[in-house]
Amino acid sequence: MEIKITRDETNDVMGRREVQIYVLQDDKTPSKEDIKKEACKKLNLSPDLTVVVNVNQKFGTKQSVATLHTYKDQASLNIYTQKYIIGRATGNKKKGAAPASAAAASKGKAEAEKKE
Q1: What is the pTM of this model?
Q2: What is the pLDDT of residues 88-106, one digit of tens each?
Q3: Are 55 and 29 in contact, with CB atoms under 8 Å apart?
């Protein structure tokens, strides 16, 4: 799999870096996880703060265009990324599900409010 950067912009308002890459694959369309690993390795990005927003396969070719967002911190990622995209990235495929750490934090917060 070969990756070329086609667009690299910084969005200071949302605290993220928006990268669009061109992917030339060997045989089949790579998974979002494979694209994320390769892009993070090539661009020196943090895999925990990087999300693959979409991958568009060009019909009849072995070429794809992928969009990635890399956030400055976990708080920005949770605020500006839709929950289902975070679920895809963390492996929690349930629609509208929050990541396990966020769900545990909100549960702990709810229990603390009940005690008061």
Answers
A1: 0.72
A2: 777 776 554 454 555 555 5
A3: yes
Q: Which amino acid is at 109?
A: K
Domain boundaries, the chain: 2-115
On whether the CB atoms of residues 83 and 97 are closer than 8 A, the answer is yes
Token code pair at residue 10:
């910084």
Q: What is the pLDDT of residues 9-57, one digit of tens each?
A: 999 999 999 999 999 988 888 899 999 999 999 999 999 999 999 999 8
For the record, the structure tokens of 37 come out as 């690993």
Task: Give pairs for 88-96: CB < 8 Å, separation 24+.
Answer: 88/32, 89/32, 89/36, 89/51, 89/52
The class level of CATH for 2-115 reads: alpha beta
